[in-house]
Amino acid sequence: MPGLLLETLRGKRADKVPMWLMRQAGRYLPEYRELRAEKGGFLDLVYDAEAATEVTLQPIKRFGFDGAILFSDILIIPYAMGQNLEFLAGEGPRLSPKLVDHALSSLEAVPQRLDPIYETVSRVKAGLGPETTLLGFAGSPWTVATYMVAGEGSRDQHETRAMAYRDPAAFGAIIDAIVDLTVEYLSGQVDAGAEAVQIFDSWSGSLAPAEFERWVIAPNAAIVSAMHARYPDLPIIGFPKGAGEKLPAYMRETKVSAAGIDETVDPVWAAQNLPEGLPVQGNLDPLLLLSGGEALDHAVHRVLEAFRDRPHVFNLGHGIGQHTPIAHVEQLISAVRGWKG
Ligand code: CP3
């Protein structure tokens, strides 16, 4: 019997709504902070399959979520393409050399940097009951490219957007290379036991419509089509954060299996405008989870009501913040589980 989350992603509407939280394995959990301090760096944790397995399972043991998301990072792809990757405390990730001034062809690929991740997936799979769905993931080519080009996160992705206008051929080659490796990477995760995958597109909101079509929709459609050729029944969740009114086109044209939506989207609008029957995942504002109180319960009910007529996976509109009190997560779980549709 597949778990409730997997059933829902496959298009079934049950009485109960499954839930998991983006970034559920992370710094808001004291047990994560403890293991992280013991292991040193974030990458040391990711590359220690035993520790990464434990981190993946921590939120399942504590909260019994319906989905476990692999503990890794979207920047493992640039790392395997040959960039150096560092996570600087308080500053975020750094990739070098950055592709704004170095040709893609100057990188020497290190594909074996993906292998330890598959080891984590199979260990997690062995540690989960059938009721919990194992989710793999990757970043979308556009979002991953913004880090590869600029060498770090940036507020409006201007260097990457400028490069895409200035030299679309060179930029397109970067996107194509990410597409190809992402298909291999997601396939490796599925072969190791992932039952569904999510494509995180954290920065899709910075693109103008024609560029959104070219750099977000087209590469994601290529990934979905390649994955579905290999695994016809694999649910693929697309999460184009900030896509707003472009969401319906993204969902139709990429042919993802489920729509991840952020908190800026009105759930009532989404319920009316996304393709009929398409499972939806989202979209409570993570800041409401930080503040708690009655406003939290009220907003949870509003999201659940809005999506009552279609398959719905309850989630936040973006990752859980590191200062979120555990008690608020417990309140959220009671509100979702206690809801009588
Ligand atoms: O629990 C989970 O969701 C699974 C693991 C996961 C991580 N990163 C672990 C992580 C997932 C799915 C991601 C995705 C990711 N990584 C995204 C897309 C989603 C989003 O949040 O928009 C992006 C843009 C990244 C790149 C990244 N990784 C940044 C910008 C940072 C630094 C900022 C920060 O939050 O620290 C990371 C580091 C990172 N990835 C941490 C975790 C738990 C924090 C590392 C630490 O312990 O210091």
UniProtKB/TrEMBL annotation:
Organism: Pontixanthobacter luteolus
Localisation: Cytoplasm
Domain Uroporphyrinogen decarboxylase (URO-D) span(s) in chain numbering: 18-27, 135-151
Reactions catalysed according to its record: uroporphyrinogen III + 4 H(+) = coproporphyrinogen III + 4 CO2
Site (Transition state stabilizer): residue numbering on this chain: 73
Top-rank lineage group of the source organism: Bacteria
Keyword entries, A-Z: Cytoplasm, Decarboxylase, Lyase, Porphyrin biosynthesis
UniProt similarity note: Belongs to the uroporphyrinogen decarboxylase family.
Cellular component annotations (GO), alphabetically ordered: cytosol
SUPFAM superfamilies: UROD/MetE-like
A GO BP entry: protoporphyrinogen IX biosynthetic process from glutamate
Any one GO MF annotation of this record: uroporphyrinogen decarboxylase activity
Statement: the UniProt record of this protein carries the keyword Oxidoreductase: no
Full protein name: Uroporphyrinogen decarboxylase
Assembly information from the UniProt record: Homodimer.
EC numbers on record: 4.1.1.37
Pathway assigned in UniProt: Porphyrin-containing compound metabolism; protoporphyrin-IX biosynthesis; coproporphyrinogen-III from 5-aminolevulinate: step 4/4
